[in-house]
Amino acid sequence: MSLDFSSEELKKYINHTAEIIDELYSKKLNRRVFAGKSPSEVMGLIEEDLPAEETAVADLLEKVREDIIGASTMNVGPHYYGYITGGGNQVAILAEMVSAALNQNNLKWHSSPISTEMEKLVIKWVSQFIGYSEKAAGAILDGGSTANFNCMAVARKNMAPKESSSEGLYGLKPMTVYVSEQGHSSFDKAVDVLGIGTNNLRKIPVDDKFQIRTELLEEAIIEDKNQGKKPICVIGIAGTTNSGAVDNLKELADISERHKLWYHVDAAYGGPAALLPSVTHLFEGMDRADSVVINPHKWLYVPFEAACILVKDPENLRRTFSFIPDYLLSNSEEEPRTDLMEYQLPLTKSFKSLKVWMTLKAYGSKRLMDTIQLDIDHAKHLEKIVKRSEDFEILAPVPLSIACFRYTPAGIEEERIEELNQKLAHHIEQDGRIFLTSTKINGKTALRTCFINPRTTFKDVEWIPEVIRDVAKGLF
Question: Which of 66, 386, 411, 475 has the fewest C-beta atoms under 10 angstroms from its C-beta?
């Protein structure tokens, strides 16, 4: 029994879906960002027993139009400033449709020649976009946590004794990894799962710019060596999740070379800004890293999921992940073939490169860089508004496109201000006009905004403090 539609039916349903997508972008982008439904209310929209009978596709699409889109957080809209969630782009929507239709699995070259070769090209283009080595190899994975995990696996593999592959880590000197205390939680997960141990992840204090203190880093490396441990990796952060801080990547490269350590840069968020004239000085030294993570689904405006790992020496990748059982042997060919399963942990993977390739082709690097600069300008604009106001306080520098601040109305003591800001993020979420998150900056609760959406305007930025003031009225 075929599951396919007739040609006429397929066109009709594609057109129906296109109408729903067009309606989303033409009429719904400015609706409340958070849908305002509770978990039970959301489940109530879809909960039922496993359906045994068919549902008319037209009715199913209308269900998507009303309930699925209606319950979604509008992170594609101009008023979403939470986390580091890019707004996507419409060319990539077309790419996703084609990718789903082709259903490619590029575990081996012959299972998907075009997605394999395109992924290699995209890795080269992303490297060029950030000023990294064009000879680097890599892969496109689902997100920054998986990408950082893969790079930590490469670092461990290439820094550990050869026998660790067969004998494991038992009996070896404890390995140590170094990152700033502002580093992403994915590194805690990685050292845990990789057997390095969270106690051996050295979280180095930061300075008043939230950059790693390199003098304390070097002291920690030397101390660990003297105690019989084996330092293996230094991690630099090119755009922290909290405030967008960029470590002194050049000094970290020097320290890594001096102590013969693997140098990894987590540029998942900030990396695409690396060649912008206004901020390129912040990224000096990133090109010297042994591995880099860049997430196109963040600041290259590609829809989820797309995270790139870049490794300067391709053999370091293959040494880590190449394991070929009999059922995956390649045929002998005159021209070598690349099997991406040898460059990453996953075996099965979708055609992720198509949406990145189409994004870079359709818009070009210049337009994308101009858009990235506009995001930075938006953050700087909000910073100026906050600094000029009498009822807001900036809490961290704004090197890229994240701004952290708090609401400080006059006549309220510090304890009450802290309590007020702790409540604000949730009440702003429920209000729905804008969406932001909260974090801690030097022990103070901050309202955190991240600008990586090309649909946001300066007028939208200026609306942020107005909404906050309005929501706060009901919290006094």
Answer: 411
Long-range CB contacts (within 8 A, 24+) of 437-442: 437/82, 437/83, 439/242, 439/404, 441/242, 441/243, 441/395, 441/396, 441/404, 442/395
Comparing CA positions, the residue from 145, 139, 221 lying closest to residue 179 is 221
Cα–Cα distance measured from residue 25 to residue 415, given in angstroms and rounded to the nearest whole number: 43
Measured over the CA atoms of residue 319, residue 325, residue 327 and residue 330, the dihedral's sign is positive
Q: What is the dihedral of CA 201, 205, 211, 215, to 10 degrees?
A: -90
Q: Which two tokens stand for residue 43?
A: 């489940």
Whether the CA torsion 57, 61, 62, 68 is positive or negative: it is positive
pLDDT in tens, 206-240: 999 999 999 999 999 999 999 999 999 999 999 99
368: number of Cβ within 10 Å: 20
For 384, residues 6+ apart whose C-beta sits below 8 A from its C-beta are none
The answer to whether the beta carbons of residues 392 and 402 sit under 8 Å apart is no
Does the global pTM surpass 0.85?
yes
Contact 405, 439 (CB under 8 A): no
Return the HEC string of 30-93.
CCCCCCCCCHHHHHHHHCCCCCCCCCCHHHHHHHHHHHHCCCCCCCCCCCECCCCCCCCCHHHH
Domains located in the chain, CATH noted: 97-360 (3.40.640.10)
State whether residue 103 is helix, strand or coil.
coil
Amino acid (1-letter code) at residue 93: I
